[in-house]
Write a structure and sequence with these properties.
The chain is α+β, with helices and mostly antiparallel strands. The chain contains two helices and nine strands.
């Protein structure tokens, strides 16, 4: 197998003859890093370690409030609507919800199997074909317009209860937008 590391890295000047350029840095294999935590071995490569700023020089950060309401990727934070389209004012926002889900009623597969098994017992197995299950699939589309911006999101639903929940959340968002 050929020598994988024929010489020092190009950004490092060649060392003295007989000196291993890949040896651990002085101070041990794990030199002290930022905040006193050990860092990985550098093996002669330059390592940028961010230096912590004193507390007096740090910029104050605005605390993030807990969202009052979240609909997909739309969040209502105090008097602001936060979305990927950008922040929008809550006052005067127009909310719309479109139910794009569908509910199917069908005979479940286990009812068909039971009907076939119990068919031999005086046709009582045919009663299993009366079993029905409801399956809801689809999305509820929620749109918001405010401050000259528009954003729309699709929220997946798997039951009628989820559809009602999303529509109730939109009704609540409409009530606090007045």
């Amino acid at each position: 197998m050929a020598n994988q590391y024929p010489g020092p890295p190009p950004e490092q000047p060649p060392g003295q003859p007989g000196q291993n350029p890949y040896a651990a840095p002085p101070g041990g294999p794990y030199a002290e890093g930022a905040y006193g935590y050990p860092t990985a071995p550098t093996y002669g490569y330059p390592q940028a370690v961010p230096q912590p700023q004193p507390y007096s020089q740090q910029q104050p950060q605005t605390p993030f409030a807990t969202p009052v309401l979240t609909l997909g990727d739309i969040a209502v934070n105090g008097d602001t609507i936060v979305s990927p389209a950008g922040p929008m004012p809550l006052r005067g926002a127009v909310w719309t919800a479109t139910d794009m889900s569908r509910t199917e009623e069908r005979i479940p597969p286990h009812a068909i199997v039971l009907a076939i098994l119990f068919f031999l017992l005086c046709f009582i197995g045919l009663l299993f074909l009366l079993m029905k299950e409801r399956v809801t699939t689809g999305f509820v589309q929620v749109s918001v317009n405010s401050g000259g911006r528009h954003h729309s999101t699709m929220i997946p639903v798997q039951s009628r209860d989820q559809v009602v929940h999303v529509l109730n959340q939109v009704t609540y968002a409409q009530s606090i937008s007045v």
